[in-house]
Amino acid sequence: YLLVLAVAPHSPTAAATLARATVAGAWSSSLAEYWDPDTGEGLGALPQSWSGLALVLARRWGGGAG
Predict the structure, then answer these.
(1) Which candidate, 33, 35, 21, places its Cα nearest to that of 66?
(2) pTM score, whole prediction
(3) Considering only CA atoms, which of 27, 54, 50 is closest in space to residue 40?
(4) Strand residue runs (E) in 1-47
(5) pLDDT truncated to tens, each residue of the chain (66 aa)?
(6) Which of 11, 22, 26, 42 pairs with 50 at a CA distance of 20 to 30 A?
(7) For residue 66, is it within any domain?
(8) Which residues does residue 34 pair with via DSSP β-bridges, in sequence order?
């Protein structure tokens, strides 16, 4: 979320791409706390409030629920 906000003023296209990827990961992992980098499996707390920020990204940059 914070990375998307930081990138947005410099490259809206990159921010949108990152936002869509983040939203997709959050949805596919049931808003897991973090994801396994190799498998994408959701790990940690389910659901995790920080992953809920993916909903904010989805609203602003698109990338709706799976």
Answers:
(1) 21
(2) 0.66
(3) 27
(4) 34-35, 42-43
(5) 889 999 999 999 999 999 888 888 777 777 788 888 888 788 888 777 666 777 778 787 765 544
(6) 11
(7) no
(8) 43
